[in-house]
Amino acid sequence: MNNHIKARRVEMGWTQDGLAEKLDVSRQTIISLEKGKYNPSLVLAFKISNLFGCRIEEIFIYEEE
């Protein structure tokens, strides 16, 4: 699954550490999310979308294999 987390984070002027702190996850989790190596839980996906003030579909792009 692709996502727009890094672009949104940069728009907000946040570091990976800052975003991790806001979401109560590790910086490594943010790195993995941004690289598309980790798909978040539904709860984390909602936290991310709420933090950025948008819908989940605006952050995460589901592509069938």
Task: Give a short summary of the structure.
The protein is mostly helical. It contains five helices and two strands, in the order E-H-H-H-H-H-E.
Description:
This protein has 65 residues and is mainly alpha-helical. The protein has helices at residues 5-12, 16-23, 27-34, 42-52, 56-59; strands at 2-3, 60-61. A two-stranded antiparallel ribbon has the order 1-2. The longest helix has 11 residues, at 42-52. It is globular.
Topology:
Layout lengths: L1 E2 L1 H8 L3 H8 L3 H8 L7 H11 L3 H4 E2 L4
Helix content: 55-70%
Strand order of the largest sheet: 1-2
Count helical runs: 5
Strand content: 5-15%
- Looking at the structure, what is the overall shape? globular
Largest sheet: 2 strands, antiparallel
Class per helix and strand makeup: mainly alpha
How widely separated are the two ends? 10 Å
Q: Strand tally, please?
A: 2
Integer-rounded radius of gyration: 11 Å
Low-confidence stretches: none
**Average residue pLDDT:** 96
- What are the secondary-structure elements, in order, as H or E? EHHHHHE
